[in-house]
Amino acid sequence: MTRSLILLLSLALATPHLAFAFSDSDCSAVLQTTVQVKEEFQTGETIVTVRLRALDRASQLAVAEKVGVTMRSQRSSDVTSDNNGDALKFRDRAMAQSKGLVRYRIIDESTIDAGTAKQIILSIDANVCIPKSPDILKPVIMFGDTLSSRGQELPLFREILTSIFSSTQNFIIAGSDQIFRDAVITGRINTVEIKTVENGPNPSLSGKPSVIGGKDPTAYQKLTASITLQAAYEDGAIISTTTFDTANIAINADPADAITKRMPEFLKKASLELMAKMEANKASQLGGSNTIKSTPAGPKSNKPTW
């Protein structure tokens, strides 16, 4: 494919990038810049994958350049270690969500063979929003350990957390290669218990037996789970929740199957509760530089061990 054809296709595909793009009213200024990046092809990657990675990096560099220049000019007559640190965090938070602060168009693109690796060279014209205040920027979060009651890493727990926090535009989830974050979220299933209960009068049902599947069985199984989630912020603040859930299960149901069926629902409820609490305390999410240590994970398992 010729260089000119690649460029024409890129220009057709990459109209000004909006993503969850900024509103001009949120910007103290919108600054223009031109950025060029080089990105290597990894084994098996398509040009589309490499182009998207290059565009992400170009957007981050555009934000770093323009937000950094603005912060330096604003603080040139009043630079201390504290406010300089605040400026760096402001810039890093902006870089972490560069897709929402940049509108761009591709002005040049080519591929070259650089020794043992193929590279894409990409240039963009970018309009960068300089946010009026840190409150406009979304908190950047990452996920730490998500453990079962046995201390084993539970991938499904992380998947549910990621899904819940991705469903809102109030947070940015940090990529695996991203250093900056406002908070690290960790979780643990404290206990999972299932026991047989004789079906006597239930006080919550005015003395009537518990009903399962439209029947009044002489006994049933009761599943109880406790889940703790914690968001540890870089300024040392902690937001945590502990949820307790129960479910009544037929006496002849397989306990392991019942737990596997119900636990995703419990984990989703716990994740939603933490997210709601974090949204209500957004002001506490900004700032700080403490190092966060997560609880060491136990051995990994290929199947859920609650």
Question: What keyword list fits this structure?
Answer:
Double Stranded RNA Binding Domain; elongated; 306 residues; Thiol Ester Dehydrase, Chain A; five-stranded mixed sheet; 2 domains; three-stranded antiparallel sheet; disordered N terminus; alpha/beta
Order of helices and strands: HEHHEEEHEEEEH
**Helix content range:** 25-40%
Number of domains: 2
- What's the tally of helices? 5
**Would you count the extended β strands for me?**
8
CATH architecture of the largest domain: 2-Layer Sandwich
What kind of sheet is the major sheet?
5 strands, mixed
Q: The CATH topology of the largest domain is what?
A: Double Stranded RNA Binding Domain
Rg calculated over all Cα atoms: 25 Å
Span of the ends, CA to CA: 52 Å
Shape: elongated
Structure description:
- The chain has helices spanning 3-13, 47-75, 81-96, 155-166, 255-280, and strands at 27-40, 102-114, 117-131, 140-147, 172-173, 183-198, 219-233, 238-250.
- It has 306 residues and is an alpha/beta fold.
- It has two domains: 3-133, Thiol Ester Dehydrase, Chain A, CATH 3.10.129; 140-285, Double Stranded RNA Binding Domain (2-Layer Sandwich).
- The longest helix has 29 residues, at 47-75.
- It starts with a helix and ends in a 26-residue tail after the last helix.
- Mean pLDDT is 76; it is low at 1-20, 69-83 and 284-303.
